[in-house]
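Hey,

Quick one before I head out. I ran the complex with flavin-adenine dinucleotide overnight. Inputs first:
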Amino acid sequence: MFKKKIAAKGDKTIQTLMKIVGPGAVLHHKEDLTAYECDGFTLHKGMPKAVVFPTTTEEVSKIVTFLYEENIPFIARGAGTGLSGGAIPMGGEVIISLVKMKKLLHVDFENRQAVVQPGFVNLKLTNSIADKGYYYAPDPSSQYCCTIGGNVAENAGGAHCLKYGVTTNHILGLEVVLPNGEVIQIADEGIPDVPGYDLMGLLTGSEGTMGIVTKITVRILKNPEDKKTVLAYFDNIADASFAVSDIISAGIVPAALEMMDETAIEGVEAAAFPVGHPKGLKALLLIEVDGISCGIEDQINEILDVCRKRNVREVKVAADEQERARWWANRKTGFGAMGAISPDYLVQDGVIPRSKLPEVLERINQISNAYDLRIANIFHAGDGNLHPLILFDARIPGETERALEAGSQCLKACADAGGSITGEHGVGIEKKEEMRFIFTDEEINAQTEIRDVFNPNNLLNPGKLFPSPGRCAEIKQELKKVTT
Ligand SMILES: Cc1cc2nc3c(=O)[nH]c(=O)nc-3n(C[C@H](O)[C@H](O)[C@H](O)COP(=O)(O)OP(=O)(O)OC[C@H]3O[C@@H](n4cnc5c(N)ncnc54)[C@H](O)[C@@H]3O)c2cc1C
């Protein structure tokens, strides 16, 4: 009897979703849903109830209104490249996939802004405006497939965010469907300095827990007049780390300042885009400066000087655009390249003050030894955003658990160094408990209370971002029980 009731409710859900978007835009068979059990964080899986593909804000609003009234949980999903499990169902949610809302709606070169739907792929924006000499600055390494909606939700970063800032610095306006189906416009069409609370700041990086973004106005930038790219090879990882701090403290802000250690270099050289880096390196830096032509040469010379003072083995400037592109392909495909040297890998994402690089990299080395797992480091060194890649073999019993624990210890090392547990990949499902490394119960409760204003029934993306209730929340719940 009970089972029958559930099946009927399931049918009603599917039927209503089909009425809103058409039968071809709803997946509900188990074999179709399997692809949506996880995102780029593959160590946790959950089965959704259905996946629905709206094409307009109105459809998103109708879907959300229905789910809200029926008390059915739901999740927004872009390309599913998230690395912290933000788009993974806990079980039974309806996934609202935004990938069919993929139009570039408007480009306004005069005011240097563009309006996109959330499923518009990041790199496509730059490609669409390149012929006019413009580009979109935030460049996550996944930019060839991740969506701008997903970038807003995660406040995505990228190699060139050191100088230009992360996603939040490039968002001028949002249209958002709230978890009850209402549609709101925030700083519509990029009007600067709107009075009232900074809702755009609040929504950006909220990991899909406060609303579903259905339209985004972004800042676009004019291509820099000139750029130059440097590769610096080191025989000692501490020298490379000190060079990073020295470059910034010399007053230079490179467009990008990336680092790879010995294991990461082994991986990228064994994969699809090898550069032919010399053998036996302990670290390399990939540094890019851009701006008006006349200042570039001086900055490059200063960078070369710093590297020489830090005992660089070899340092070279890309001869042409082709060589530069090869170096960047080698770096930007770095995560996937680990597949060439390990059956599995777990990407971590912590932040530290730049000056602590040598000591935290040493701590990560100790964690690698303690857990008997290789850890490669490939990261945005300029902004202290580490990506320890923990290499493991899921076929060996216990190794997955060891990798997860080693990852958590790397985040603890970042937190202990005065940093944070995420620089750009978000907390999602993966790092909920690690939130306790940097926040007290009271601080976590303050944040969940803000979320609850937008998402009072916690139907939108439940079970993400925050650890299970802290002490304060538990006390409050007990008090509530006593007083009601
Ligand atoms: C190889 C690789 C390299 C990467 N490199 C980087 C990098 O350099 N920098 C970086 O920051 N990240 C990087 N990532 C992580 C990932 O690509 C980013 O987090 C990206 O922003 C996710 O976009 P997506 O479209 O795939 O979103 P999804 O993975 O589909 O979703 C991510 C989160 O956003 C929410 N969401 C998605 N769309 C919306 C919407 N329209 N409204 C509200 N919430 C929404 C989801 O609910 C989920 O919580 C990398 C990932 C991979 C696989």
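The longest helix spans residues 2-21.

Talk tomorrow,
K.
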